[in-house]
Design goal:
With 288 residues, this protein is mainly α. It is built from 15 helices and two strands. Helix 2 packs antiparallel against helix 3 and helix 3 packs antiparallel against helix 6.
Length: 288
């Protein structure tokens, strides 16, 4: 029974279905915050496009190279090549169908974010004798992750919904999402800091150390709370309570993260906060 549950969790995580659901959940959260009904084509498009982008690198990478990289994720990818490729291929018609219902401004927004996502993972520029991708440039990795997630889960739904939102509220939503995503991403860099140091990747933990990086995450979480306190919203108390609870819970999970934690801790609990945040805020709005 335990082995079956673990196999199921491995499938959800390493196939990138879990993170694709998280992307849709963050967009659904945006609709809650602007008090608009969620648009199904937006949620499904983010689900399929996330599935496509996250599976693009494993599909394009030679399996011999994947096999040589010793990690649970790469072992799963090597032993489940057919499943990974099937989900990648499934995402293409899924995206195409949803794009049919997407406005031109929405297409432009997603197109720019898609280009950033592609070159984040795909090496395209020669530096010091080898090809490099954007994530290898110091300071760009976290910025691009935060930018793509904030753009896709906040700006894109706002564009498609034609919401009458003030510039101030729009900026607050974008920056709050950016800070939150960056804050829960840094612990992954803490986990990988020794490997990143070996590959000469200048991440925050590599440059400033584990302890300083963790405190920086907590600072970002605090800024999220302070920033949202300036957001104008009718019946804002349930939403603010729900968001505050998830940000404080995320801060606790970040604080107790360490190099010794299991990979499941990061994938299930930290990435899972992207889904839990939507569910908790939804629950608070239904209770009040």
């Amino acid at each position: 029974m335990k082995k079956t549950i673990r196999s199921g969790i491995d499938f959800l995580i390493h196939s990138n279905l879990f993170i694709a659901v998280a992307a849709a959940a963050q967009a659904a959260l945006t609709y809650l915050l602007i008090q608009e009904e969620a648009q199904s084509h937006v949620l499904w498009l983010l689900f399929f496009s996330t599935l496509f982008i996250y599976n693009l690198s494993p599909v394009m990478k030679p399996m011999a190279e994947v096999q040589g990289m010793q990690s649970p994720r790469n072992h799963w990818l090597y032993t489940h090549q057919a499943a990974s490729r099937f989900l990648f291929m499934l995402s293409i018609p899924g995206m195409a169908l949803c794009l049919w219902y997407t406005s031109l401004p929405g297409l432009l927004c997603l197109g720019l974010l898609g280009v950033c996502s592609f070159f984040y993972a795909y090496p395209f520029i020669y530096i010091q004798g080898r090809k490099r991708n954007l994530r290898e440039f110091p300071g760009l990795k976290l910025f691009l992750i935060g930018l793509v997630w904030a753009g896709s889960s906040v700006l894109f739904p706002l564009i498609e919904s034609h919401a009458d939102l003030s510039v101030r509220n729009t900026l607050i939503l974008v920056f709050k999402r950016f800070l939150f995503v960056v804050a829960i991403t840094i612990p992954f860099d803490i986990r990988d800091m020794y490997d990143d140091r070996e590959y000469n990747l200048k991440t925050i933990p590599v440059m400033f150390g584990e302890k300083a990086s963790r405190y920086f995450c907590l600072l970002l979480m605090l800024l999220c709370l302070l920033l949202f306190s300036f957001y104008d919203l009718e019946r804002s108390l349930p939403v603010y309570l729900g968001l505050s609870a998830t940000i404080l819970l995320s801060a606790y999970l970040v604080f107790i993260s360490s190099l010794k934690r299991s990979p499941y801790y990061y994938f299930v609990f930290l990435d899972g906060m992207l889904i839990a945040q939507y569910l908790i805020v939804l629950g608070c709005t239904r209770l009040w």
